[in-house]
Amino acid sequence: MAKRVMIVGLRPDLVREFREQLDHPDVELVTGSGLDDVRAAFAAGDIAHVFLGGGLDLDSRLALVSEVFRSSDLATVHMKDHRSGPEGFVPFVRAVLTGLRAYEPALSPHAVLHADRPEG
């Protein structure tokens, strides 16, 4: 089953090219530009990994990280650098996804869960 992965902050004119370049068959890609999109995406189902674009300002990034962790005890968050620009987004996401390919978090009896929604 494909993992749901969300990309936040990718310029709309780059989404189609991003999907083609990423070319990860085991990924269901969800895109958005801000908090409302992140909330809607999590309302539709849990997301394994969230990537925040380097063009987002710090306050937006902090609000998005907070929202992701309020929405899920499963999701990981990854923030892209500013230096590599939009052309560095695909290589960054691809590298992280490749490294996390075998990562399947299991519920620990010692976990401290914080999400405002039930896991399922």
Question: Could you explain how this protein is built, in words?
Answer:
- This protein is an alpha/beta fold and 120 residues long.
- The protein has one domain (3-100): Rossmann fold, CATH 3.40.50.2300.
- The chain is 36% helix and 17% strand.
- The protein has helices at residues 15-22, 35-43, 58-71, 89-100; strands at 3-8, 27-32, 49-52, 76-79.
- It has a 4-stranded parallel beta sheet with strand order 2-1-3-4, sandwiched between helices.
- Helix 2 (35-43) runs parallel beside helix 3 (58-71).
- It is globular.
- The two termini are 15 Å apart.
- The model has no long low-confidence stretch (mean pLDDT 89).
Name a few traits of the molecule.
120 residues; 36% helix; globular; 4 helices
Q: Cα-atom Rg, whole angstroms?
A: 14 Å
| Relative strand content | 15-25%
- What is the H/E string? EHEHEHEH
Q: Write down the overall mean pLDDT.
A: 89
Low-confidence stretches: none
Structural class: alpha/beta
Considering DSSP H and I runs of 4 or more, what fraction of the residues is helical?
Answer: 25-40%
Number of strands: 4
Short summary:
The protein is of the alpha/beta class. The chain has helices at about 15-20, 35-45, 60-70, 90-100; strands spanning about 5-10, 25-30, 50, 75-80. The chain has 4 helices and 4 strands, in the order E-H-E-H-E-H-E-H.
List the SSEs and their pairings:
Elements lengths: L2 E6 L6 H8 L4 E6 L2 H9 L5 E4 L5 H14 L4 E4 L9 H12 L20
Parallel strand pairs: 1-2, 1-3, 3-4
